[in-house]
Structures are given as structure tokens and as C-alpha cells.
Amino acid sequence: QVQLQESGPGLVRPSGTLSLTCAVSGVSISSSNWWGWVRQPPGKGLESIGQIWHSGTTNYNPSLESRVSISVDKSKNEFSLQLNSVTAADTAVYYCAKGPYGGDEFFQHWGQGTLVTVSS
Amino acid sequence: AIQLTQSPSSLSASVGDRVTIACRASQGISRTLAWYQQKSGKGPKLLISDASTLEAGVPPRISGSGSGTDFTLTISDLQPDDFATYFCQQYSTFPLTFGGGTRLEIK
């Protein structure tokens, strides 16, 4: 059974860096085509942040591309998100997710999400 | 980016009812559309991919249809567990985008 669990600071200062980790269990991180991050501001809809493919190739939402980085640590079976120069607009619940084995870009498995608040 | 417009944004229904949620894409996306269910405080759950392919474990009273720009999610014989928020998502073109959501409430 695939399980994803986000972790990281719940409060980040404006202009700081948001760093989150997604621990993967039930499957090897090397076995899936891609892994990704999605966020949801309080009371709002979902926004795709980006993905990292098995090859190491990354795709980032153009609206965030200049500030975001996604990486994989195969030794720990986890992947991470970094978002730089954050503002209050980056306050959201952040979800990590896994794509299907076929490579299509829908989100087959999701974590529970973690709320990150940007505030001084 | 492709925009997805869901309608209605909210609806009320009773247990046993049949409801339909629409998702319209700003340009044609063939059948590259997924539907998710989200309950308060939890991550979304995949229901349907490729517009009409049911994810394992999802009851057959939930169905999806459509292609091109117009898609629907239909839930028959509503059960208490179905009252949640539903999102559509397109994966035809990067960036991946989601609809605004439809909140399904008990009447």
C-alpha cells in the first residue's frame, strides 16, 4: 500500500525558503515514473507546483518556476520541495503526490497535506 | 495554460439522489481528464482517469464521460460518504491545471 507523508516547518518568514519532504512507503521511489507537489491556499482550489521524473527531469509550473526546486533522495526513499523568496501568497496546504506507472500526469496517490503559513 | 471551469460550484442533494458535475476546458484536451474527491482536512482521492476509467475500489455508481472540452462526473444513488468536494484536472498540456471545485452538500 502506497503511503506518502509530508513534513517540514509549519511557519516560514517572508522572503525565506519553504522546505518540505515527502516520505514514501510501500513502494520504492525508483519504481515510479514521477513524483510531484500540489498546493491549496486556504479555502481555494488546487495548484500544481511541479514534478520530478524517474530520469531526474523536472517540470515546474511557469508561475513558480523561478523559485522552485524538486529533488529525490533515493537512499531515504523520499523527495523534497524547496520554494524560495516566499510571501503570504505562498501560504497553503502542500501535498506530495505520486503519478501512475503508465506515466500519465494525473495524481494517483496523495499525502495528507501539511499547512505552511508565511508570516513574520 | 488550459483553464477548467466546473459547474455548479456547490450543490445540495439528498441520499439516494443522482447528481452531475460539469467540467469545461478552455481548449480541447481529448480525454486527458481526471476527477478527484476531497474531504475536509484530507488529500484528494483519485476517482477517474482518462475521462471515464474508474480507479480500483471506486464504486460503479460513480461514472465519468466526455471528450474534447466538455466532461461530466455523475454520482448515482448518493451515499453519506459521497458528500465532499470534487475537482477535475487536465493532463493534456503542461502546466497541469485543476477546476475550481464543486462542493456537494447534504440537503
Class per helix and strand makeup of chain A: mainly beta
The number of distinct helices of chain B, counting runs of at least 4 residues, comes to 0
Give the chain pair forming the largest contact, with residue counts.
A-B, 21 and 23 residues
Strand-residue fraction of chain B? Answer: over 45%
What is the CA-CA span between the terminal residues of chain A?
39 Å
The residue ranges of chain B in which pLDDT falls below 50 over 5 or more consecutive positions are none
Radius of gyration of chain A: 13 Å
Shape call of chain B: globular
**Low-confidence parts of chain A:** none
Broad structural category of chain B:
mainly beta
Oligomer: heterodimer
Bulk shape of chain A? globular
> Helix coverage percent of residues of chain B?
under 10%
Write down the overall mean pLDDT of chain A.
Answer: 95
In this structure, how is the largest beta sheet of chain B organized? 7 strands, mixed
Helical segment count of chain A = 0
> What percent of residues of chain A adopt helix (DSSP H or I)?
under 10%
Provide the succession of SSEs of chain A. EEEEEEEEEEE
Largest sheet of chain A: 7 strands, mixed
